[in-house]
Amino acid sequence: MFGYEHVEPLQLQELLQAEEILLIDVRTPTESARGGIPGARNIPLHLLPLLKEELSDDRTVVFYCQSGNRSAQACAFMAGQGRRKVFNLGNCSRRCPTSAIRGVVRGGSRLV
Domain range spanning residue 72? Predict the structure, then answer.
């Protein structure tokens, strides 16, 4: 066990509808500018140790990236810091039905 769980896109939809979550894109700003999940905050992986205090401890946090490697590293880092409710969406570029997620975000979910 790594201290975090993997979440599938459909599970993300359920999380978005059920609670306030922090959705974090750990790609570089250049990669993030090419597109991502609306409402996600971009915190490049290399800056996460510096900005970890900005992530509220009481909300679920979901990380994603281009391939799933950096988001797994972000999850492992945050879990190692004692953070609970950490999820890895992983590779959102190829397997995420972003049109479905966008519908949830636009539909009034509590994405922070």
Answer: 5-106
Instruction: For residue 15, give the CATH number of its domain.
Output: 3.40.250.10
The dihedral over CA atoms of 47, 104, 98, 61, expressed in degrees to the nearest 10, equals 30
The rounded distance, in Å, linking the Cα atoms of 11 and 73 is: 20
- Catalytic residue (one of 65, 75, 92, 96): 65
The verdict on residue 112 lying in a domain is no
- What's the predicted TM-score (pTM) here? 0.82
* Number of domains within the chain: 1
Is 75 one of the annotated active-site residues of the chain? no
How do residues 15-67 score in pLDDT, each as one tens digit? 888 888 999 999 999 999 998 888 899 999 999 999 999 987 788 999 999 88
pLDDT tens digits, one per residue of 71-90: 999 999 999 999 989 999 97
